[in-house]
Specification:
The chain contains 6 helices and 10 strands. By secondary structure, the chain is of the alpha/beta class. The chain has a single domain, classed as Lysozyme-like (3-Layer(aba) Sandwich). A 6-stranded mixed sheet has the order 1-7-6-9-5-10. The longest helix is centred in the middle third of the chain and has 18 residues. The protein is globular. The mean pLDDT is about 95. It binds zinc ion. The site of zinc ion has 4 residues, from loops.
């Protein structure tokens, strides 16, 4: 699968209202929307959804509006997967992206500051839209590639699992995140992850198509 590079730094040329995202980042006083990791032990993937519904209700899946939201809120994610399954790399995996906020891994892991050791993947969706077959396929192939590159299995959790009610009860944050929410089909996701793990043995290409019988 092809992964497009849309790094969230001053060189980003995607236009929003006639101004490049890179210039908007510069204007916000930053040179990029990531920082150095303090650990090389990266072994968790966090699944999110994001849309522009609050700033552009008529085009909630607008990618440039979503990039503008990242800039405006000073947040970021390693990957963004659009409705048609196109996959964009926004932050280098070896850098820390700002996608979890105050967070806590589910028991028995219980590590805090999940950004430190995770890769964030944003699926373009609203609370009501659900996710497309193309997104499930792209997500699965991306996670397969990640496991292949790191030569290990990752733990997959939702933003709601690390920044939800448990994190609020632990006093880490005041509001609970709810993404990817009940419309994200975890059984479908694990089904394809297990297929790619068994099939590819980390040495052939990651090509899973949702609905096919690989
Ligand atoms: Zn999220």
């Amino acid at each position: 699968m092809e992964i497009y590079s849309w790094k969230l730094d001053c060189g980003n040329t995607v236009l929003h209202g006639g101004v490049s995202i890179g210039d908007l980042i510069k204007k916000s006083g930053k040179s990029c929307l990531w920082e150095d990791r303090i650990t090389s032990e990266v072994n968790v993937v966090i699944i999110h959804y994001i849309s522009a519904v609050n700033v552009n209700a008529s085009a909630p899946f607008s990618l440039s509006d979503i990039l503008k939201i990242f800039v405006d809120y000073g947040v970021s994610s390693h990957y963004l997967i659009s409705r048609d399954g196109s996959t964009y790399n926004l932050v280098p995996e070896e850098k820390k992206a700002w996608h979890c906020g105050p967070s806590l891994m589910p028991s028995p892991d219980c590590r805090k500051n999940v950004n430190d050791f995770s890769i964030g993947i944003e699926l373009v969706a609203t609370e009501q839209s659900g996710f497309t077959n193309e997104q499930y396929s792209a997500l699965c192939n991306l996670c397969c590639q990640i496991e292949k590159r790191y030569q290990r299995h990752f733990t997959y959790v939702g933003h709601e699992d690390v920044a939800g009610v448990e994190a609020v009860n632990a006093g880490l944050r005041t509001t609970a995140k709810t993404d990817p929410g009940p419309l994200f089909d975890w059984s479908e996701f694990y089904k394809c992850i297990n297929i790619t793990r068994n099939k590819n043995s980390y040495d052939s290409s990651c090509e899973y198509i949702k609905g096919s019988n690989l």
